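Sequence, please.
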């Protein structure tokens, strides 16, 4: 009788750990700073992104199966509650996803892993919306 062992690799490990997460976050905020489609979303953030980047690195590392440093420092993510002070509608969700798609494209070469990450992020980004939709499908201005 043979015993089979399976080793599961987290996305965090598969993309290269903390260094890869840091590159992803840098690329994400570069997109947010430069993409015209993200101008309004970027305006919701502080001018100095150092702390925002640090927290996103912690969160994404934990979310992708890495160290639990985010929760150790900040408690339960409670993402929607933490973002309720910001107007997040369809346009903000779409701009966020656009920046993340572009950042993942330049930092995660494996298409299957990139698609897995995006597949998990898309419903999360949608859930973050806190503005009602109009009949035409757009958030009211």
């Amino acid at each position: 009788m043979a015993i089979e062992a399976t080793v599961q690799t987290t996305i965090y490990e598969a993309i290269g750990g903390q260094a890869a997460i840091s590159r992803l976050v840098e690329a994400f905020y570069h997109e947010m700073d430069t993409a015209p489609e993200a101008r309004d979303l970027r305006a919701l953030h502080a001018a100095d992104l150092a702390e925002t980047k640090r927290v996103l690195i912690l969160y994404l590392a934990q979310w992708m199966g890495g160290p639990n440093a985010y929760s150790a420092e900040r408690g339960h993510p409670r993402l929607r509650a933490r973002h309720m002070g910001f107007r997040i509608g369809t346009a903000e969700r779409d701009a966020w996803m656009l920046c993340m798609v572009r950042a993942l494209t330049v930092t995660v070469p494996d298409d299957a892993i990139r698609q897995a990450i995006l597949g998990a992020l898309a419903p999360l980004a949608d859930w973050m919306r806190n503005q009602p939709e109009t009949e035409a499908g757009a958030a009211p201005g």
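The radius of gyration is 17 Å.
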